[in-house]
Amino acid sequence: MYIEIQSLIFAIMDTKDYIDFNSQVKMETGLHERDRAGVQDFVLLENYQSEEAFIGNLKKRFQEDLIYTYIGQVLISVNPYKQLPIYTDDHVKAYRNKHFYEMPPHIFAVTDNAFRSLIEENRGQCVLISGESGSGKTEASKKVLQFIAACSGNQTTVEGVKDKLLKSNPVLEAFGNAKTNRNDNSSRFGKYMDIQFDFKGAPIGGNILNYLLEKSRVVAQMGGERNFHIFYQLLAGADEALLQELRLERALDTYSYLTDGLNGSVTSINDADSFKQVQQALTVIDFSKEEQREIFGIVASILHLGNVGFTEVEGNAKVNSRDLVVTAARLLGVNASELEAALTHRTIDARGDVVTSPLNQELAIYARDALAKAVYDRLFSWLVQRLNISLQAKETRASRNNVMGILDIYGFEIFQKNSFEQFCINFCNEKLQQLFIELTLKSEQDEYRREGIEWIPVEYFDNKVICNLIEEKHKGIISILDEECLRPGEPTDKTFLEKLTQKLAQHHHYVCHEKAPAHIKKIMLRDEFRLVHYAGEVTYSVNGFLDKNNDLLFRDLKETLSKAGNGIVRSCFPEKELRSLKRPETAITQFRASLNNLMDILMCKEPSYIRCIKPNDLQTANVFNDELVLHQVKYLGLMENLRVRRAGFAYRRAYELFLERYKSLSKSTWPNYKGPGGPKAGVQQLVKDLGWDEEKYRVGETKLFIRWPRTLFDTEDAYQE
Ligand code: ATP
Ligand code: MG
């Protein structure tokens, strides 16, 4: 009888309403694409322990341009490498204020969910985006920002803030991104951006933290890769007057720092247009004309410096192109003779004993490159600081919790050759995995506790042991590296490796050449060590570890720069740094401190996870490489994530929603449940009438927990009939 009434309702709806209602209903359970394009939520996958089934589902959906899939609340996103019409204003509207499972998976759903939790429950949020290079992290972070900007407040002041937040992207990308062999627009730094909201949910400010810029790129690039975008943008986009002022030629091959890798333009990039956008963005973010002039002056000075060559006379380096030093010096606002001397000499101040000695050619080149790298790196950090001043909330009405963070940071890296940089990046990923364990597994358990549901905790690999191996005080790799860097005598990469092996050979996650099993020994060199990361094994070459960790810029150069007429340069090399008697912190120690700070920031927020996957190595649409995807699924820990999610209760639904949807399946609940105890009692009655086995579900405080998706399928099928 109740089914008949339902048909009657449909009969009196007009056809369009019926279709909308029907598709809405189908969307709600995530079942409407079950046959056509896999499952929308992996917890619904029957064969959930099979990697093949997992990849199969992703692939089936990818082929239908359905790039998003959930594992519970975690969003998996496969880079489509083509513009899909799924980010329009209509999509923003459709996803705004909807329950998470009401709509097909989408990054807007995740953002909306987080945003509502922020506004309605006053809980600080963070969106954590991870994945390998080219998987779509930065694009994802822009979609999050787009959604927030589109659906939050529209007063003029707020529009100003949004504009600045959005415009910070082209600036940071110009200076921090580059064409690599994996991604034409690869971020070469990590980024965490906080957006602050007022109590009504309007954005009022923001703050950006930057991590570890790959500054070695300034002076050298691999084949097929480019330097940071800004160099090419400046040369292609600056007008004649600016070029003249900076003494620049348009031809890229004039500049030695640009000729290492790919010496030319990239089809997907229009450097001249981008330069205009950067200039415009800088203006919107209130950079003065003078500041802009100084910024481009610094960029140009680096190009000139790169062309400064040296000859060696009796072991002493001599600059052989003084005019270039003069130009660079003018742009930096330093004395040319002083710069020349600083490039070819080194002063050591050993407890008041000041000794200046000339550099040979090799060391002079080293000093020149160190200068270029340091100036660029500090310019980048200065830009971020300066952006932050512009983004600072004018009003202080924002509560501390009204913050949404977006983290777009390098994913786990395993290359043919892995060095100090990969070590830092992979360490960062270990820390993020720790956070994932803390926040998701913990929150899962918290929910069961809150709802009063008994459950047996599931086994998972806790990577704390690897974090400790790397960062434990006095014993970890970082401590050993720092000790070696600071040790008097002649520490080298080789002595560092010896120390590592001496102290860590017994550790289960450290593999040295001597003790490696035969098949590993075959692929390892003597100057390498291997770490068993949570995401896989990585062999690191120790070459350059000490040098990169010391990150030495000779004192003479620092001193010259601290007096620079270019205000930005001067503030980047403060005099107090010279006067400080403390040894500057090593690169890895600074990195560890900034990571720990990040962990503190993230730990007190509610996380949303976006796991990005790259479907192929060709940066092309419609190609899905199973093997490549499987590799990523493994090291993103997605199978384990799913296992944990499935071990508990795959589906949970608030009583009101469940009852509203399925009340027609029982006489006691149709058209409304009238008994005592409200929706909770109604649902209990309903599932009893449906004959559900007790094992299949649990009754929580506010939600019904369903163990197997099959149960829901069957109920849904009954409903559809
Ligand atoms: P990296 O770690 O190198 O910075 P990434 O994960 O940030 O990589 P993105 O720069 O976001 O990768 O994406 C690489 C390219 O893939 C983009 O330039 C764009 O062409 C394409 N892409 C990524 N996501 C999408 C999307 N949702 N829709 C269309 N194209 C996309
Ligand atoms: Mg990126």
Description:
It is a single chain. The chain has a seven-stranded mixed β-sheet with strand order 1-2-16-3-12-6-7, sandwiched between helices. It has a three-stranded antiparallel β-sheet with strand order 13-14-15, with helices on one face. Strands 17-19-18 form a three-stranded antiparallel β-sheet. The longest helix is centred in the middle third of the chain and has 31 residues. The chain is built from 29 helices and 19 strands. The structure holds adenosine-5'-triphosphate (ATP) and magnesium ion.
Contiguous low-pLDDT stretches (5 residues minimum) are 1-35
Tally of contiguous helical segments: 29
Report the mean per-residue pLDDT as an integer: 89
* Bound small-molecule species: adenosine-5'-triphosphate, magnesium ion
Structural features:
721 residues; 29 helices; 49% helix; binds magnesium ion
List the helices and strands and how they pair.
Blueprint (H helix, E strand, L loop, with lengths): L1 H11 L2 H15 L21 H13 L4 E4 L2 E5 L10 H7 L11 H15 L3 E6 L6 H14 L5 H21 E2 L7 E2 L2 E8 L5 E9 L17 H9 L2 H7 L24 H14 L4 H18 L3 E4 L2 E4 L2 H11 L3 H9 E6 L2 E6 L2 H31 L11 E6 L11 H31 L13 H8 L5 H10 L6 H12 L5 E3 L5 H4 L6 E6 L2 E6 L3 H6 L4 H8 L4 H6 L2 H5 L7 H17 L2 E8 L12 H10 L2 H10 L3 E4 H8 L15 H12 L7 E3 L3 E4 L2 H12 L1
Parallel strand pairs: 2-16, 3-12, 3-16
Antiparallel strand pairs: 1-2, 4-5, 6-7, 6-12, 8-9, 10-11, 13-14, 14-15, 17-19, 18-19
The protein binds adenosine-5'-triphosphate (ATP) and magnesium ion.
